[in-house]
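2024-03-11 09:14:02 INFO worker-7 job=invfold-0412 stage=load source=structure_tokens
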């Protein structure tokens, strides 16, 4: 009877918060066991501090909608701060959607290229009509942004040159992440180039999305594995050609604060048509 009562309590929790199921699965699934067995990374990547990476951090983030499927303000801030490290940054983004990250980086980078599925492909994969309508909403008219409407899984990356900064935020299944990772390592401009992957973990780094993590590891050249890290206060993993000091288990004790001056305005034209 006690076991039944406990089971019913668990069911109630799941009904109220379905996301719990995803959390449980991610913490105990075959992919996690695979990563630990092959790479020994039971706690994930070492975590480097946001401010060690960007000690002079001071950014303004615009075009933030605070809607689902977007990234965190700290993720966009990381990208924008890293773009400043390059004099004439050439930026590649895989998986743009509305364009929150791209519009922010484009204000710093000299040239930006986005690779995202076409509207037709998105429709075939089951994306909603609204989701397709707002594709490239913030970036379709920017002069330094080129949109390549193709699937990154089949795209010929040799046609677009080399890049300083790459953001991988396309499909988050293992095979998709692995393929994207293999491709972007081939188009880094030089030893200073940086790769960022979204959806590596939650903000604190203690809940890892193991299928994404496995895709990063298996797609990364073996000699580059020691240059992979999780960036604190973000959902991102990073490749950077530097030996940095990281912590094995991310601390849950705050060691920094962010100051946010927030304002909002209505979007004048909310009627969009698919491009």
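2024-03-11 09:14:09 INFO worker-7 stage=emit residues=275
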């Amino acid at each position: 009877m006690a076991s039944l009562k406990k089971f019913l309590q668990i069911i109630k929790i799941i009904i109220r918060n379905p996301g719990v199921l995803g959390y449980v699965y991610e913490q105990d699934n075959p992919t996690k066991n695979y990563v630990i067995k092959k790479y020994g990374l039971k706690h994930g990547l070492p975590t480097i501090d946001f401010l060690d990476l960007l000690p002079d951090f001071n950014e303004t983030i615009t075009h933030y909608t605070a809607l689902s499927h977007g990234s965190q303000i700290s993720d966009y801030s990381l990208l924008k701060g890293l773009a400043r490290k390059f004099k004439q940054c050439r930026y590649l983004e895989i998986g743009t959607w509305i364009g929150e990250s791209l519009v922010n980086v484009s204000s710093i980078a000299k040239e930006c290229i986005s690779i995202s599925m076409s509207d037709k492909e998105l429709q075939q994969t089951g994306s909603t009509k609204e989701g397709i309508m707002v594709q490239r909403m913030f970036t379709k008219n920017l002069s330094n942004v080129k949109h390549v409407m193709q699937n990154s899984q089949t795209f010929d990356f040799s046609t677009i040159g080399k890049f300083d900064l790459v953001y991988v935020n396309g499909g988050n299944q293992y095979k998709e992440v692995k393929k994207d990772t293999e491709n972007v390592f081939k188009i880094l401009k030089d030893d200073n180039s940086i790769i960022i992957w979204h959806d590596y973990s939650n903000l604190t780094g203690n809940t890892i999305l193991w299928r994404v993590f496995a895709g990063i590891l298996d797609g990364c050249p073996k000699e580059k594995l020691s240059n992979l890290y999780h960036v604190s206060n973000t959902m991102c993993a990073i490749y950077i050609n530097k030996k940095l000091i990281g912590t094995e288990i991310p601390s849950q004790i705050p060691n920094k604060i962010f100051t946010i001056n927030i304002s909002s305005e209505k979007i004048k034209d909310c009627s969009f048509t698919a491009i």
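2024-03-11 09:14:09 INFO worker-7 stage=report msg="The chain has ten helices and eight strands."
2024-03-11 09:14:10 INFO worker-7 job finished
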